[in-house]
Amino acid sequence: MGEGNGPACGPTSVVFDRTLADYDFGPNHPMSPLRVDLTMRLATDLGVVADGGAGALRVVPAPVAPDDLIATVHTPAFIEAVQKAGRTPGAYDATYGLGSDDNPVFPDMHRAAAHVTGATVEAVRQVWSGESVHAANITGGLHHAMPGNASGFCVYNDVAVGIRWLLDHGAERVAYVDVDVHHGDGVERIFWDDPRVLTISLHETGQMLFPGTGFPQDLGGPEARGSAVNVALPPGTADAGWLRAFHAVVPPLLRDFGPQVLVTQHGCDSHINDPLAHLMLTVDGQRAAYLALHDLAHELTDGRWVATGGGGYALVDVVPRAWTHLLAIVSGRPLDPRTETPGDWREHVRTALQRTPPYRLTDGRNPAWRPWEEGMNPDVWLDRAIHATRTEVFPLHGLDPWP
């Protein structure tokens, strides 16, 4: 399918309302809701998100997840601690990961985090019910949150709650692919010993980057060996190397697993301009990954695909363009990378933010990559990393790890 994609074979949606931006750690925190606002403005101005119109994503209201739904993943004590912290100034309990530089307390943080969680569960429900073939929640993807504590800018793990909802409503095999620059540790840990969930994370190696986990030998619990897959990429990995790693690992494992639903996390902090990490992808390489995941959903899950956001801290130059491409692909109508950003959007960036906006949706790169089947080079760190993952995981799935 790829560049030749026609419209998705069915309705598509984005779960969103403006108050999702209430998930806000404050003006000095890297994860500013500005990135969401700029994305939705850009996607709307380009006709990707609209009220009606051919090819436009339908906007679905975002519910607030009730406590009992959040409690399918998180402990009651942690939920209570989040509620108390957001209600009473200075009342946070640091043992729950609250009040740190990463996870500062803010008013009504329970409701804000529950809103993001409810939006992801609604996206999942849209897809599982057949109301949408694909659905997105770009405010979601809070993949570091653990059952009993906040971590890495993430209070509640909306993705894990969404996957748990699927399992509780009859799904037997759910695949989760995480392309954020940071290891998707929370989702992996929550389903560590559940063979119904395959988690695959491609990330900068934990030797160099938070959370310091996600190595090839991390394979899942005793009841689910091979259900956790980690590709620990060297710093400096760019489009060609990242896509080489993706295609060497993700498609064969997904095809073997045979998921009924594909859930993906699209942190765009793998970009060369992101201030918090050390990979070197471009928007063009990220777009190529989104297209590949879309095609795999149509190949393997009858199109049932739920896409979430995640990290991304180049708030103006990268996130809006990357996630507008993602939303366009979710809609079934990818945008030409050479598309110019609309004048009204550029003027908003200039006047409201006093920033110079990007002019096109492309970084001007051709994200070509060399297939793994052409052979590996043991002198190259990237190839050793890919081979390490294939050597650990592939035999557990009856697959040959060698090219």
Automatic annotation (TrEMBL):
GO terms for molecular function: histone deacetylase activity. Pathway: Ketone degradation; acetoin degradation. It comes from the Bacteria. Residues 29-328 form the Histone deacetylase domain. One of its GO terms (biological process) is epigenetic regulation of gene expression. CDD domains: HDAC_AcuC_like. Pfam families: Hist_deacetyl (PF00850). Keywords: Acetoin catabolism. Belongs to the histone deacetylase family. PANTHER family: HISTONE DEACETYLASE HDAC1 (PTHR10625:SF10), HISTONE DEACETYLASE HDAC1-RELATED (PTHR10625). This is Acetoin utilization protein AcuC.
